[in-house]
Amino acid sequence: MLTARDTAAVITGIGSALPSRVVTNEDLSSRLDISDEWIRSRTGVRARHVIEPGMATSDLGVAAGEAALKSAGATEVDAVLLATTTPDRPCPATAPDIASRLGLGVVPAFDISAVCSGFVYGLAVGAGLIVGGVAGSVLVIGADTYSTILNPQDSTTAAIFGDGGGAVVLRAGTAGELGALGPFDLGSDGTLADLIAIPAGGSRQRSSPDPVPDGDQYFQMQGRKVFKNAVLRMADSAGKVLARAGWELSEVDHLVAHQANARILAELADQLGLPADRVVSNIADVGNTSAASIPLALVDAAQTGRLRPGQRVLLTAFGGGLTWGSTLLCWPDIQAVSQLPQHHEE
Amino acid sequence: MSDIRERLNALMIAKFDLEPGTLADDPTLESLDFDSLAIVQLAAAMEREFGVEVDDENLTEATTVSDIVELLGDRLSAAR
Question: How do strand A137-145 and strand A79-83 relate by DSSP bridges?
């Protein structure tokens, strides 16, 4: 019999879903007054995937979830979590719809709102359900469609963000086995909530008799302050999980951080003192996909053969809230699966 | 002050891959092709190197290397 102390959530499958439509920097520069060089030097992004009109976050979540279930060889799970900033509707949550469309029945399903830190928060909640004995297996999905919330006139955010979905299947296992997650570090700072926000659309704006100021219905970000906080918080949080696990930085084979911006990744590695070749990055091809970014980067690294079973992986994320979080694992022996999202007829 | 300038020069050259000598004529950050994110990176690197708090809001594209040396001198003497 496992004691709670030994029980851990273990990654047993991973999948990803990217829309087939690709928007290059050249496509953007013809619409906005920015060049490919301007975008690449500031963000490291060359192209991003964007959903077709009519698609929604759930379509990416279903495809990524199905891919992760295939990867795990699983047909059922005990719970479904969706980390997202862009649910299909403000109410209800999108996770129950995804669970039903995946044929997972009437399992508990809910959304997690932690913006770009959502996937790490989702892993922590999923691990909590497992270690607490509430669920034996959990499907954790990160999916976002920022193309639906970006201001078409804001060249900075248009250059950075893309759409995508990624997912993992967690099962109950033992701490110390390949794929076991933990320890975790999570944090938030609501005094800086305005740095990353969609000001309108929530109860504060809806209860006001005043009309919405122009642009407030869109995603807004104060780039310079976000940059500084992202680097500081991720470096601090990563250091905490390493210390709790008793790992030396030199033992980390791969840093898989939220793919916020190539320069944030470089600065984070610099701050940690980690050689640049240990930093996993796929931001050039997919942009910043918010809650999907970490599973998409893991799938990319696994499929290109860079990430191999037994290697030590440090995950860290930062996002609006502000929120941040980190965890560790030794990569399991699993086959990553990718799927194309499909249009869903209502 | 000359010690601060030497450490700052070494830091900037190493971190931003500048040609040695580019800092001799006291250039502005703009003339070194620094954008707003590079300024944040410079402020963070100076905090680590000198162990004092440097608010990146105090640095702009028009800031010169001498301005930064002066700023660091003030911060360091205030910290003593």
Answer: parallel
**How far is B36 from chain A, CA to nearest CA, in Å?**
7
Q: Would you call B29 helix, strand, or coil by DSSP? A: coil
Question: Rounded to whole angstroms, how far apart are CA atoms A272 and A290?
Answer: 22
User: Nearest CB to A42: which of B15, B37, B48?
Assistant: B37
Measured CA to CA, the distance from residue A317 to residue A311 in angstroms comes to 20
Domain that holds residue B67: 2-79
Please list the pLDDT of chain A residue by residue as tens digits (346 residues): 455 568 999 999 999 999 999 999 999 998 888 899 999 988 999 999 999 999 999 999 999 999 999 999 999 999 999 999 999 999 999 999 999 999 999 999 999 999 999 999 999 999 999 999 999 999 999 999 999 999 998 988 999 999 999 999 999 999 999 999 999 999 999 999 999 999 999 999 999 998 899 899 999 999 889 999 999 999 999 999 999 999 999 999 999 999 999 999 999 999 999 999 999 999 999 999 999 999 999 999 999 999 999 999 999 999 999 999 999 999 999 999 999 999 887 6
The length of chain B in residues reads 80
A228 touches chain B (CB under 8 A): yes
The model's pTM is 0.92
Q: Where residue B21 sits, what CATH number does that domain have?
A: 1.10.1200.10
Instruction: Kindly determine whether residue A231 and residue B43, on different chains, have CB atoms separated by under 8 Å.
Output: no
How many CB pairs below 8 Å do chains A and B form together?
Answer: 27
B chain contacts of residue A156, beta-carbon cutoff 8 Å = none
* CATH class for the domain made up of A1-346: alpha beta
Q: Which residues of A are catalytic?
A: 116, 258, 288
Total domain count for chain B?
1
Nearest CA to B28 out of B54, B56, B57, B66 is that of B66
Q: Which chain B residues have a beta carbon less than 8 Å from that of A227? A: 37, 40-41
